[in-house]
Write a structure and sequence with these properties.
Elements (H helix, E strand, L loop, with lengths): L33 E2 L2 H4 L7 H13 L4 E2 H4 L13 H4 L28 E5 L2 E5 L26 H13 L5 E5 L8 H12 L6 E5 L2 H4 L6 H7 L5 E5 L9 H12 L4 E7 L7 H13 L3 E7 L13 H11 L10 E6 L4 E5 L4 E5 L2 E5 L5 E5 L4
Parallel strand pairs: 4-5, 5-6, 6-7, 7-8, 8-9, 9-10
Antiparallel strand pairs: 1-2, 3-4, 10-11, 12-13, 13-14
């Protein structure tokens, strides 16, 4: 498949105009340019009959959707360990369930005061506007939302969530997520953002999306015209591997940057994909070159069906230690474990404090050298 042949551009204007925002469930595409079942994939990947059956079983439990664009980034489509393929093609390992894995590892449903809203931290909330994604990542924390019996948030749900935010004055930040919120029609994105941005207590709005990574064609001029209207916007993306930084994804990020929107990256630490410092340094250097700030490196959550992606926590700390000092601080993300049962994010890193004695501490630098540092006493 031609890596640059991506004839998947969305129309500049979606039909229906602003009035179409009456139903948030209508998505912006018909998903013509996507693989959505194993049978279609078998036309471009050679599966044995036994392997195909196992993959069909996995896809039956956890949805499959892969944009042709993202599939084109796979360098060896017949290698299940290819770092791009592993993120998008089902694996039989997804059906292996451990007693230490959970459908809702972060207890989001327990912290949902109204439908589609998660209120875990005092000053910010998570607004889940859709369960749809351009691509169903195999390591996804919210695999529970892929189930057929879970309804999509509708306009009334969104309005109730916004009303909750308005009444709770301590909330100053809203993270718009999903699924991927950019799968919504542009007019519906405008509807959601306008409802949030008019709240006096909201100082920042974050959009979490993988669109620039997996379907960069979505970042078109029609969308950018809407995003430019809102001066509180930030965007978080998820690049996990250097191969994902392409001319197309770079252009998508630059379009967002020209809208005046800061862009940060939240990678997930994935076994066999990015769990070594050389890969992470290369990724973060590429991100810096396209004006995307490496922000977080998340430990993969203990969600059902993702145990084969998870690494020892010590591995993430080692990666950060081998990055710190060997590349600029701007290129070093914060390694974070998101606590189960809604305990919140816990940053972890190397310990550079060797000892403390009164007003003097012994510190260790990135090269392993120790030195004494005198500081004022309490």
């Amino acid at each position: 498949m031609d890596r640059t042949a991506t004839n998947m551009n969305l129309p500049e204007e979606e039909p229906g105009g602003p009035a179409a925002a009456l139903d948030v469930r209508t998505q912006t595409k018909t998903y013509k340019n996507f693989f959505q079942n194993i049978n279609d994939l078998s036309k471009v990947i050679s599966f044995s009959p036994q392997e195909k059956k196992k993959l069909e079983d996995a896809a039956e439990v956890y949805h499959l959707r892969v944009p042709f664009y993202y599939f084109s980034l796979i360098k060896n489509r017949h290698d299940s360990k290819d770092p791009i393929r592993a993120q998008c093609i089902p694996s039989p390992e997804e059906l292996e369930v451990s007693e230490k894995e959970f459908m809702d590892p972060l207890a989001e449903e327990q912290m949902s005061p109204v439908n589609c809203l998660v209120h875990r931290y005092p000053d910010r909330v998570l607004l889940i506007v859709t369960s749809q994604c351009f691509m169903y990542c195999r390591h996804c924390t919210r695999k529970r939302l892929w189930q057929e019996d879970i309804p999509e948030p509708n306009l009334q749900d969104i309005d109730k969530a916004i009303s909750y935010i308005k009444k709770n004055k301590q909330i100053r930040e809203v993270i718009v997520s999903g699924g991927d919120p950019l799968t919504l029609d542009t007019s519906k994105i405008d509807y959601v953002l306008s409802g949030i941005s008019c709240l006096k207590n909201v100082e920042a709005i974050r959009i979490g999306t993988r669109a620039p990574v997996v379907f960069p064609q979505r970042i078109n001029e029609a969308l950018c015209r809407v995003l430019r209207k809102y001066n509180k916007l930030w965007i978080n993306v998820q690049f996990n591997h250097p191969w994902e930084v392409t001319p197309q994804s770079a252009q998508a990020c630059m379009r967002l940057a020209r809208c005046g929107i800061p862009i940060s990256n939240q990678s997930v630490l994935l076994r066999g994909i990015n769990d070594n410092p050389e890969v992470m340094i290369e990724l973060c250097h590429k991100l810096q070159s396209i004006r995307v700030r490496p922000y977080y490196l998340f430990q993969c959550d203990p969600v059902v069906g993702a145990s084969h992606f998870r690494t020892p926590i010590r591995r993430g700390m080692e990666i950060i230690e081998k990055m710190r000092g060997f590349t600029s601080g701007m290129c070093v993300p914060t390694f974070v474990v998101d606590g189960i049962e809604g305990k919140g994010k816990v940053p972890l890193g190397p310990n550079y404090l060797v000892s403390e004695d009164g007003g003097c501490v012994t510190l260790r630098n990135y090269q392993g050298e120790t030195f004494r540092y005198y500081a004022p006493k309490e």
